[in-house]
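Beta-ketoacyl-ACP synthase III structure dump, as promised
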Amino acid sequence: MSEAYITRIAKFLPNESVSNEEMEEYLGYINGKPSKSKAIVLRNNGIKRRYYALLKDGTPTHTNAEMAALAVTDLFKNDADEIAQVDLLSCATSSPDQLMPSHGSMVHGYLPATGPIEVVSPSGVCCAGMHAFKYAYMSVKLGEKQKAVSCASERLSPVLRADQFEDEVQQLLRLEQNPYLSFEKDFLRWMLSDGAGAFLVEPKPNAEGISLKIEWIEGCSYANEQEACMYMGSDKLPDGSLKSYKEYSASEIQDQSVFSIKQDVKLLGEKIVKLGFAKLKDILTKKGISMEDVSYFLPHLSSYFFESKIDDFFNENGIPIPKEKWYTNLVTKGNVGAASIYMMLEEVFNSGALKKGEKILLAVPESSRFSYMFCLLTVC
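structure tokens r here:
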């Protein structure tokens, strides 16, 4: 088999960064009032800035597919003609612009210079970006592709806007119930961000500068054991099952904001760390890797609240990793879902700080139904 290397990384962030104080100017005020949960959530998640692909009046500035295409295009900024050599486009998102056609096909539509090529669209949430990456990695490693691009992007800001919840709030008011959305619905409004990232994967490292050799990519799902924790386009029933939007009437979808993103916060806190990072310990043992071998640890975090939980787990299980080896950009970029790990690695890769021989461990937990992806890279 061939080897596979990340030779370039690029990202795209829409518009200017948005501060905590400005968020509701973009997302709006539910029932005309500031959110009661916003301050609590922001204090716990530690996010200070994020990006939205829309203006304050809700006017969109970019589609999801367009942002992904702009990140891919940036991979070839030094030689625009080189994009014609790409032979695979592997695109992931949890927030496609439409149900059909596939997200990958829509991204390809913004990239006519690539010509007719293979396109795939892994679905999912945060792990989807790693699934797209693994498909590119395996295609290159098998010798089937020579210049594979994987990308991940999110555009969730439109479904976070207050007008998506107003009908439900008004219905609650008419029923004289407490006129606020449940914490499960309001929780994610203050965490999510828009943007895109892209990797170029090739069978040979760069002749000059650095590349990242892909040592392995491992994934695991606990959906056979756990009910859904984060969901959209459905509602959770008392027995833990999901009722699809297809089973609601048009008025019910609107009145109950079925297409809002919901998070079972209690289940999240109980499961997200101990399930996935126990699996990481098993993977490291199987691969013969010690945390002492790792120079950089890049965990995708939805909130800094989980940083100490992960650290405690590592220490309790005999696989400590010093905090100086950790790197995350959650505070300045927000949670960009499937694209977060791309943006973190882009900053490290293009920082000028990496030295040949150093190892980078990527960890991506996904709370939707508890899936995890891990990857080890070597700087070369």
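The mean pLDDT is 93.
lmk if u need the other ones
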